[in-house]
Specification:
By secondary structure, the chain is α/β, with parallel strands linked by helices. The protein has two domains: about 1-60, no CATH class; about 70-150, Ribosomal Protein L15, Chain: K, domain 2. The chain has four helices and eight strands. A three-stranded parallel beta sheet has the order 3-5-7. Strands 4-6-8 form a three-stranded parallel beta sheet. The protein is rod-shaped.
Amino acid sequence: MIKLNSRIKINKRKIRVGRGIGSGKGKTSGRGVKGQKSRSGVAIKSFEGGQMPLYRRLPKRGFNPILKKNIAILNLDKIQSYIDKKNIKTSDTLNSDLLKKLKLINKNSFKLKILGSGEIKDKINIEADLASKAAIQKLEKIGGSIQIKKQ
């Protein structure tokens, strides 16, 4: 063993467990007496003595991103069906606030996206956050307009 300044030990000896009673870590090797934890090959991970474990106390989150912005999607054929049912007037400007008020889209949605699936016959003005090229093309073809908000 090398000593520096006669205080600091450089090579400290490793405690050899289970090497006789005189070593200080002999007989039971620091595992106490009997019981499940004294045996080899036993791991009690996350066991809290019968108390509800932490991983079960916390809510499930999975793969749902917390900061996800919900986008309400509306197809042109759906808009046409709302017009046919007299839920939406063609004179009104269709926007997310109006749709939320009429409960046609979810109140928790942050943005509105118009998609071009289906056909639309009536001329209507739409104000949305996002729109597909097909939706814009079909709306302009029948004489309607779509205004996309700036983010």
